[in-house]
Amino acid sequence: MKSHVIELPAIMPFPWASIEEFNQAFLALDVSDDAASRIQRNLSKEALAALAASVPRSAEEIQAYSSMQRHVNMTNRNMNQRGSNALFSPIAWGSFINSIAKGDYSRKRLKY
Fold first, then answer.
1. Residue 23: pLDDT band by 50, 70, 90 thresholds?
2. What is the pLDDT of residues 31-64, one digit of tens each?
3. Between the CA of residue 7 and those of 1, 38, 60, what are the distances in Å?
4. What angle do CA 83, 67, 78 make, to 5 degrees?
5. CA–CA dist 91, 93 (Å, integer)
6. Closest Cα to residue 52, out of 63, 39, 60, 61?
């Protein structure tokens, strides 16, 4: 078997039968819709919800969301520990200073 290449002549497909039909369709084209109204229509809640429901998520988007969630979880874990740290608690500092004033940590009382 040998390959045989046949080159066909180029064609230009047009939906109109003639240039006159194209000119009529072009002149009848409604271009009153400006860019701002198209942007508002395309970014409306309904349009974005329809796109979110029909367009699948890409791997890059899933990875970015996953790493963002890991970062948020890690940050929240550290924030929750911050509230239980006695170094930042004025009540714990007051208790520590009062115990020093009472002599709770004096060397005379400590028997090793």
1. very high
2. 777 888 888 989 999 999 999 889 888 898 888 9
3. 19, 43, 41
4. 10
5. 5
6. 61
